[in-house]
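Attaching the record inline, Q. Sequence:
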Amino acid sequence: QVQLVESGGGLVQPGGSLRLSCAASGSIFSFNVMGWYRQVPGKEREVVASITPIGSTNYADSVKGRFTISRDDAKNTVDLQMNSLKTDDTAVYYCNIRNYRYSGQYDSYWGQGTQVTVSS
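Structure, as predicted:
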């Protein structure tokens, strides 16, 4: 029902920067929370950052001060600017959207993932 397409992953040196982008299409509800998650093989997927329709943001402690999430509702996109990258940031990054219903329940959708590798 919702499709998410990610781009921007790649290989960078420690201290470098990358900007990830995600374009959403389909049945996007009026109230939706968009976010970025990441996952390393053998570990659980973890939330990196999220943003509400009014621009309220939350960040994982590990990325505070280095990453910035933003959204453009006119284009249905959400970006993640990643600065001062560390080797521990190496992971597959996933775009996510939660479509909230009036009941408070939500449907969750995922992008295909994009690899971010920070070399030593």
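The first strand starts at residue 2 and ends at 7. The mean pLDDT is 97.

More tomorrow.
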